[in-house]
Amino acid sequence: HVGDRLHEGDTLRQLSHTKWLLCQGAAAISTAEAALEILEPLGPTPELASAYANLARIRMLNAHYETAIVLASKAQEIAAQFGLAAVRSDALNTQACANASIGREWVAPLRQALDLAVAERCEEQAGRAYANLHSLCCSAMRFVEAEEWFAEGVAYCDAHDISTFASCLRAQHSD
Predict the structure, then answer these.
(1) Which of 77, 122, 131, 154 is the most exposed place for a label (fewest CB within 10 A)?
(2) Cα 5 to Cα 42: distance, rounded to the nearest angstrom
(3) pLDDT value at 174 more than 80
(4) What is the mean pLDDT of residues 14-24?
């Protein structure tokens, strides 16, 4: 694959995600940015949509909410062109979480992320949406809604063997 810039950029995006999971935040950011430097000149591609969604999530988790929203919007736009439901759902989810953090409307985009993920059978994205709906409702002291999202989310995650987000739901619920 020497000289295959598309593959190189996508591999860097995947590496960035792995670095984030390994708690290597600074390295995850620099690798995500390197992926975009390679992919952006190539124009709209599924790989670019995924790279925008990846960096948006990292930026949101690092409290760079406005940047995350811009990146998530770019990811959604490109993902829609290519019919990438999982990327669109992830980007909507990230946008909703960033919105919640700065006092903007978050329920509609997060519900849209969930509905899209369930309809398109993007199980990991559905699990993430359930976990974030529950968590954000808890943070907003909307406990009746939180309880509903918890019950529905745990049932979905257990039925689809999504242990990561089932664990997130259960951990948040026990707080």
Answers:
(1) 77
(2) 8
(3) no
(4) 94
CA neighbor of 98 nearest in space, from 86, 88, 87, 110: 110
DSSP assignment letter at 142: -
Residue 113 near residue 92, CB atoms below 8 Å: yes
Token representation of residue 56 = 């948006």
Pick from 143, 93, 113, 111: which is nearest to 151 by CA?
143
pTM, rounded to two decimals: 0.93
Q: CA 41: distance to chain centroid?
A: 24
How distant, in Å, are the alpha carbons of 19, 38, 56, 57 from that of 15?
A: 6, 14, 15, 14
Those residues with Cβ within 8 angstroms of residue 27's Cβ, 6 or more apart along the chain or in another chain: 19
Can you give the C-alpha Rg of the chain in angstroms? 16
- Tell me the pLDDT tens digit for each residue of 42-65: 999 999 999 999 999 999 999 999
What is d(CA 155, CA 15) in angstroms, rounded to the nearest whole number?
32
Cα–Cα dist 154/83, whole Å: 28
Structure tokens at 46: 């599924």
> How many beta carbons lie within 10 A of that of residue 105, not counting itself?
10
Buried b / exposed e along 138-163 (16+ C-beta atoms within 10 A): beeeeeeebeebbeebbebbeeeebe
Torsion angle in degrees (nearest 10) through CA of 86, 90, 92, 98: 180
